[in-house]
């Protein structure tokens, strides 16, 4: 069948290449790493998780839980691999990031219809293609995409949290609990702080030195992933009402929640590495050691990886893309992943999945699909293709992106349940109408609360 090119070996590109190959197409998967890396990547593996190691909630009362279920039923490689490499994380799908990326890499490299090309792409390919180069697209391709789209650049800053080693944590200063007892009881290691300790940490974050950035680069952060030092600048209580909130985390040693709490989350199945939840940062490395060692449980912490901050770029997609993810000016070119302004791992992979389905249909002489906005996929794609271009910013999947219920219940919990029920029901109908093979629906708790950010 027709050869296609997929540029980018992240979550979206990996999903797209796999889906096209499984549909019988020969795929050239172009990835510049390891020949050229980015400020956020640490390996040459496909689908590397560069920030946190969680795909967020699995529950159907959260829109990302619905999105994951829609993807799972469509045979998503990324969701299947995520479930294979799940580690404790409360009600969130939390992964052993190393094993996950290694397994995705093996699957793609061993697929008989995928040719992996380790080189930097400098332009838009001539033939059918999916561009999934993410928010850290190389300069040459970045310029080519801007010329192709006829747009000015848009950008914001993103950041990742530090990772510490298990043996360096003072476990006598830690208690295990998931918020409100949801999920596995040992999913999170909680490092409590009293008022004095918290205020010392807050003051240290406010005065800590960050990495210098070029003078021409502004500081527009994505609000759902703010660096911890930026949060600290917003007020004394911002952190303890945000990533360090103690609610629902009663300390069994005192019988009450602490004044503030830093949560640690496993990075791998062995539990040898732990992520500082919500502590994404752009501080200088020696400052990260100084500041985070003010937390009693981390006084002797050894950092396996420091937090980093990097510049994410994205298209003004409503001016460029159709809801099928086709370029408005060239229907055989599709875009997918974070470069289109969908924020989050799962959302990026969903774009790769849809782009592959639609490109495959186009090559077979069929019309690409526009998913109904009653579904999580459809609501997300409508947002990136039909929002106001002047105010467009990256966004996670959300109930507010989906069509509202005609007669919504007053109770929020019931409203979410009805939105989820309608989404999955209409997803099945739509898929059946267009001959998409589906896997059986998974069982998920309808009332679980999201346990991780």
Strand % is 15-25%
Ranges where pLDDT stays below 50 over 5 or more residues in a row are 214-218, 445-453
User: If you compute it from the alpha carbons, what radius of gyration comes out, rounded to the nearest whole angstrom?
Assistant: 22 Å
CATH superfamily of the largest domain: FAD/NAD(P)-binding domain
Q: What general form does the structure show?
A: globular
- Tally of domains: 2
CATH architecture assignment name of the largest domain: 3-Layer(bba) Sandwich
Write the CATH fold name of the largest domain. FAD/NAD(P)-binding domain
Mean pLDDT: 90
Structural class: alpha+beta
Tell me the major beta sheet.
6 strands, mixed
Terminal-residue CA separation: 42 Å
Question: What percentage of residues falls in helices of 4 or more residues?
Answer: 25-40%
CATH class wording of the largest domain: Alpha Beta
The largest sheet has its strands arranged as 6-2-1-7-17-16
Q: Count of helices?
A: 11
Count every beta strand, where a strand is a DSSP E run of 2 or more residues: 17
Order of SSEs: EHEEHHEEHEEHEEEEHHEEHEEEEHHH
Quick gist of this model?
The protein is of the alpha+beta class and 453 residues long.
Search tags:
single chain, 453 residues, alpha+beta, FAD/NAD(P)-binding domain, Elongation Factor Tu (Ef-tu), domain 3, 2 domains, six-stranded mixed sheet, six-stranded antiparallel sheet, 17 strands, 16% strand, disordered C terminus
Task: Give the secondary structure arrangement, pairings included.
Layout: E1 3-7, H1 11-22, E2 26-30, E3 54-57, H2 63-73, H3 77-84, E4 86-87, E5 92-95, H4 97-110, E6 114-117, E7 129-131, H5 139-149, E8 154-159, E9 163-165, E10 175-176, E11 188-193, H6 195-207, H7 228-233, E12 260-266, E13 273-276, H8 285-292, E14 303-305, E15 309-314, E16 326-327, E17 330-335, H9 345-363, H10 376-386, H11 412-433
Parallel strand pairs: 1-2, 1-7, 2-6, 7-17
Antiparallel strand pairs: 3-5, 4-5, 8-15, 9-13, 9-14, 10-11, 11-12, 12-13, 16-17
């Amino acid at each position: 069948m027709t050869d296609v090119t997929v540029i980018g070996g992240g979550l979206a590109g990996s999903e797209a290449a796999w889906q096209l190959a499984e549909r019988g197409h020969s795929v050239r998967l172009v990835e510049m790493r390891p020949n050229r890396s980015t400020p956020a990547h640490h390996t040459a593996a496909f689908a590397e998780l560069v920030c946190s190691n969680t795909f967020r909630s699995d529950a159907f009362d959260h829109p990302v839980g619905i999105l994951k279920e829609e993807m799972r039923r469509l045979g998503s490689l990324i969701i299947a691999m995520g479930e294979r490499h799940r580690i404790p994380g409360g009600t969130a799908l939390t992964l052993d990031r190393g094993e996950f990326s290694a397994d995705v890499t093996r699957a793609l490299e061993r697929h008989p219809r995928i040719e992996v090309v380790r080189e930097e792409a400098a332009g838009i390919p001539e033939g059918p293609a999916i561009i999934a180069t993410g928010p850290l697209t190389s300069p040459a391709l970045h310029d080519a995409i801007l010329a192709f789209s006829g747009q000015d650049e848009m950008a914001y800053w993103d950041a990742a949290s530090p990772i510490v080693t298990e043996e360096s944590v003072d476990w006598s200063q830690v208690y295990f609990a998931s918020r409100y007892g949801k999920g596995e009881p040992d999913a999170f290691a909680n490092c409590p702080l009293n008022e004095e300790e918290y205020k010392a940490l807050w003051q240290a974050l406010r005065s800590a030195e960050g990495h210098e950035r070029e003078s021409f680069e502004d500081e527009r952060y994505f609000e759902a992933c703010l660096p911890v030092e930026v949060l600290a600048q917003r007020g004394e209580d911002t952190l303890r009402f945000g990533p360090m909130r103690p609610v629902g985390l009663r300390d069994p040693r005192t019988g009450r929640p602490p004044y503030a709490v830093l949560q640690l989350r496993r990075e791998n199945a062995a539990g040898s590495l732990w992520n500082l939840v919500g502590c994404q940062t752009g501080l200088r490395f020696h400052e990260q050691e100084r500041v985070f060692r003010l937390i009693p449980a981390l006084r002797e912490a050894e950092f396996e990886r420091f937090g980093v901050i990097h510049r994410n770029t994205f298209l003004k997609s409503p001016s460029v893309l159709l809801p099928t993810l086709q370029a408005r000016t060239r229907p055989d070119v599709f875009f997918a992943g974070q470069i289109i302004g969908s924020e989050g791992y799962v959302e990026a992979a969903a774009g790769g999945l849809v782009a592959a389905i639609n490109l495959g249909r186009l090559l077979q002489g069929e019309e690409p699909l526009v998913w109904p906005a009653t579904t999580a996929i459809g609501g997300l794609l409508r947002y990136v293709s039909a929002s106001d271009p002047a105010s467009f910013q990256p966004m996670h999947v959300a109930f507010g992106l989906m069509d509202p219920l005609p007669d919504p219940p007053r109770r929020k919990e019931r409203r979410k349940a009805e939105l989820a029920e309608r989404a999955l029901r209409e997803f099945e109908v739509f898929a059946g109408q267009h001959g998409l093979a589906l896997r059986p629906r998974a069982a998920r708790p309808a009332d679980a609360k999201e346990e991780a950010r």
